[in-house]
Design brief:
Length: 384
């Protein structure tokens, strides 16, 4: 990474203590923000620690042995997470994604999964509970997680080539061990399994077709491979627009190699555009967070490791729900505070970044990070 790494300003303390409204309307599952977007998806970061040091997420130069991760006492307990999740579900959340950092580093995560799986949507349906992981601990954990009620899993894997992958994770972790984790998850019934590859131009774009070929041949429709555009999250990865490979290019490469046909999205607010292989050997997706922003139907909220609510992946401040949990407020008060926060939401960072790039002084042309806005919080802390 060398010179492009920007030193870390600690934004973990940038949070407002939420206001409790005078009228405590019970949640109806019908929240709508200022742009008319509902709340359906909650991503919960269970740890800010990770055993990988991917340069685009937690570069070694910043997250070194001196870096102070959150102390255990700062983290939400499983009971606190479950209590908040229940309130979010009452507000209309259908899907919970556990993430981090590396969520499988949080001890006894299956206990949290078991607690969350007892929750139901307002109309009595089970929740869609999933997890995003680098796969390094899946061989050990997959069965226990499935037994506890986890339904699906998303595994991050940025290359098929072992040398490239070891360089990207920057801790010399081999591809074979992630593949073993994927197989363990499939055996445990965590299907359909998604694999996410972040594409960085000049680093791993040569891996798009080989990884797709491997997944098609070995797993067929059991695995959906998705290609994520390298995003300007956080403030430490030295992001440059010229390292983003537009998803349109990924689709062109895959179409040329295998033949693709567009699919309808599964549900509103879905991040990936879906494609099927014309020979029937499964499906792929592209997540075009940079070149085709999907803010207009973003129904996701993020709960940080220490209980701050973030309304956008690119936010620079959160809302301190832990202060309410530990300040003696009851469920009705906390639910009303969440309702108020969501009602005032108007974040649409990626759309605004897109319109800046269209201008003459664009990031695309200057090679600088797109926004002169306040520093954004790091992704491993609010959850990917
Ligand atoms: N440790 C877990 C993992 O590796 O999946 C979960 C956390 S990680 C922050 C979640 C996802 O965010 C991963 O798929 C990772 O590759 C992706 N990610 C991290 N930084 C990114 C960036 N700058 N642009 C695009 N995706 C990124």
């Amino acid at each position: 990474m060398g010179e492009s790494v920007i030193s870390l300003a600690d934004l973990r303390y940038a949070a407002r203590v939420p206001q409790i409204p005078a009228d405590l309307h019970p949640p109806q599952g019908l929240l709508s923000d200022r742009l008319g977007r509902p709340l359906r998806d909650l991503r919960i970061s269970v740890t800010d620690r990770c055993n990988f040091r991917c340069s685009y997420c937690m570069p070694k130069e910043v997250f070194d042995s001196q870096y102070k991760f959150l102390p255990q006492s700062s983290l939400l307990s499983f009971e606190e997470i479950t209590r908040l999740a229940k309130l979010f579900v009452a507000h209309g959340v259908h899907k919970l994604r556990l993430t981090g950092g590396e969520p499988l580093l949080r001890k006894h995560l299956e206990v949290l999964v078991a607690q969350l799986s007892e929750l139901q949507t307002a109309d009595g349906q089970p929740l869609d509970i999933t997890l995003t992981t680098n796969g390094s601990l899946l061989t050990r954990k997959a069965q226990a997680l499935a037994d506890a009620g986890l339904k699906r899993v998303t595994v991050s894997l940025d290359a098929l080539d072992d040398t490239i992958f070891r360089q990207m994770n920057d801790v010399d972790f081999p591809v074979a061990d992630v593949m073993a984790g994927i197989e363990a998850a499939l055996r445990a019934g965590l299907q359909p399994l998604k694999v996410n590859m972040v594409v960085k131009r000049g680093t791993n774009e040569g891996q798009i077709v080989p990884l797709a070929r491997h997944m098609r041949e070995h797993f067929g429709a059991q695995v959906v491979l998705r290609f994520i555009e390298y995003m300007d999250v956080g403030a430490t990865n030295g992001w440059r627009m010229d390292e983003v490979l537009p998803s349109a290019e990924v689709v062109r490469l895959l179409d040329e190699a295998f033949g693709l046909q567009a699919l309808q999205s599964n549900q509103p607010g879905e991040t990936a555009q879906r494609w099927r292989y014309t020979d029937g050997k499964g499906e792929v997706g592209v997540i075009s967070s940079v070149t085709k922003a999907f803010c207009s139907d973003c129904n996701r909220a993020r709960l940080s490791t220490e209980g701050k609510l973030f309304l956008c992946l690119f936010a620079s401040a959160g809302h301190d729900l832990r202060a309410l949990l530990r300040g003696g407020y009851d469920d009705a008060q906390i639910a009303a505070a969440i309702g108020l926060i969501w009602g005032e939401r108007e974040d649409r960072y990626s759309e605004l970044r897109g319109s800046q790039q269209a201008g003459p002084q664009s990031a695309q042309h200057s090679g600088k990070a797109a926004s002169a806005a306040p520093r954004k919080v790091e992704m491993h802390y609010i959850g990917g």
